[in-house]
Amino acid sequence: MEPLITLIGTTTALLALGVLGVRPLRSWSRALRGGLAAMFTLTGVAHFVGLREELVAMVPPLLPAPELLVTVTGVLELAGAAGLLWARTSPWAAAGLGALMVAMFPANVYSIMTGASAGFSESLPVRAAMQAVFIAAALAVVVHHLRARRAAVAAGDRAETREAVLS
Q1: Which of 41, 77, 125, 165 is most exposed, with minimal Cβ within 10 Å?
Q2: Is the dihedral of CA 118, 56, 70, 111 positive or negative?
């Protein structure tokens, strides 16, 4: 549940700052990128501190080297979080993180089905719904970038195209 709270809370706070006059944060896509970056920083750090043993236990036994897999996914989440903060890499980071979430979802299912996880957010319907929200948020970043770029190219304005890529 903490990742969902982080995503919503950070995105809302950044949007509020935009309303209060912080011009770069007036864009919902930038606020969402910030929310996703905060969420993936939280989950990425958890791969190394605090929840490492629980995450290793979530890896299905068919997969080799659970500790290595947890380390690699943690590094990818932290790199993706950083990539979301730079406009030029944000659509690539969002797409990569979306694919990573899809790839890691079976570990969540395995954890829930074997009883390794407990609590409200660890029922399969709740966990699937949260995962869908996370994937939709990452997809929204990619779609926004593609639409802004397409609109700028259609307008034929090089400055607009550059700005669309950077937003």
Answers
A1: 125
A2: negative
| 84 close to 32: Cβ distance less than 8 angstroms | no
The CA-CA-CA angle for residues 9, 137, 26, to 5°, reads: 60
Burial of 35 per CB tally in 10 Å (0-12, 13-18, 19+): buried
Q: What CA–CA distance (Å, rounded) separates 73 from 6?
A: 19
- Residue 59 to residue 49: CA distance in whole angstroms: 17
CA distance 102 to 121: 17
pTM for the model stands at: 0.86
Give me Rg for the CA atoms of the chain.
17
* Residues in contact with 11: Cβ distance below 8 Å, sequence separation at least 6, in sequence order: 31, 32, 34, 35, 36
Give the phi and the psi of residue 86 in degrees, each rounded to 5. Answer: -105, 120
**What's the rounded Cα separation, in Å, for the pair 133 and 91?**
17
